[in-house]
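User: Structure please.
Assistant: Input sequence and predicted structure:
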Amino acid sequence: MAGSVNFPDILGELTQGARAQFGVVDAAASLRPRTPRVGKPFEIIVLLQNTLAAPVDVTVSLRLPEQDAKKQRGQFIAHSSRVMVGMKAAEVGYLSLSAMTLPTTIPGDLYKFAVEIQTRPQAKERRIRTSESGAITTELLPERSRDEFAALKSLAYTVKKPLGRSAIEAPLPLFGSGISPMNAAARAGWNSLWTLTGTPDPRPMMYVYGDDLLLETFPRGRRLHSYVPLLKATYEHFRAAGFDLYEPEAEIITKLMVLLLEYAAPVENGHGYANAGRYAVVPMLVNNPMELNPAPELPRWVLEMLRSIDAKAENARDPISLLTGALYPALAYDAARFAFALAERETGENLGSDVEQEHYASELARALGQDPQSVTLDFNRVYLPLVLGGLFVNEQMPIAREAPGELVSSILRILNQRSPTLSDEAQPLAEMTRSVINRMEHKYGFRSGA
């Protein structure tokens, strides 16, 4: 993938640019509250920022004073003095290390604490952050992190590294007894502020995992690899959602889904960019995705695939297992949105607003994900838009040596078979489907025989 990039400097925004560097991880430390009191709990906050597009294991060891001003030992107590964190690629977060002093501890302003930090990258180093990354906006943060971010920004941070030590050393002023409130929202241990999968902007994930999609995932989405397992999955998911498909119905829906997989890399799969439209993902990846403006709206299956690769790198090389399982609803959502647009274009019918179609596709995806709160699938929800849309792409997606009209003819026979059991509400859709098939008979010169 071409181009270089500087990811948001989230730690620098919190510390006003200050940082200590431990290999591939930026760090800073602070006390909360700023004025710990004798006999009261306090937190040591350790900010950590992964500068790599790869996971990093981080070990943080806390060193508190061994004795107080009267040489009393064991007056400073840490709940945990050594913590290991597996940081994801590009992740930013903080460790909250709980500590306290005994009521007998002597106050003073000469105490110090230290946090030793060791880092071990889990993959080939590719830096995506430097200290010149610049300020960020809260829109880049997950919504759940914004309040924490504001609270962390109010703290005073230390980045001083003692000579010859892989540590940050900071003052620990201890005041006399009094009120020393803890942060009610504090969570001991690791607290993630920002990850590739947590931000609403897909461009960081595209930058880090774009090559995985290009080299591993998209080639395995071609019909040669994907059609048969997706056909089987289509039967199973629809049956579980309460609608048993006939074989031709499953085939036409599967063709629609496989076409979208091939549209991700349209030229490589014999499709044009014009036909693929926004489902063409390769053009967004071959240069620097971080330079795309505005942020692109990725197909849902691609977005979920990126998240799955972040969770487990091997997923990039086995997309079919995910697409036939956990990611099948996402692919069905994309197929429904695409099929609505096709059906409107080809029939001239108004099939609802964009908001209505999005809601419809989301309900379909939830049903196929076996969500017990979702709607039950019926003829209308299956034929519009999936079967109807599949009819329009049938000719583009020949499987083996089938004749163009065979599958269309079979759909008409099944439609006639279903008709006696259809409700009055479903009859207009049945007639629309018949009309589409009749037009195909004239266009391609075949007779359905029904």
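Residues 39 and 102 are 5 Å apart (CA to CA).
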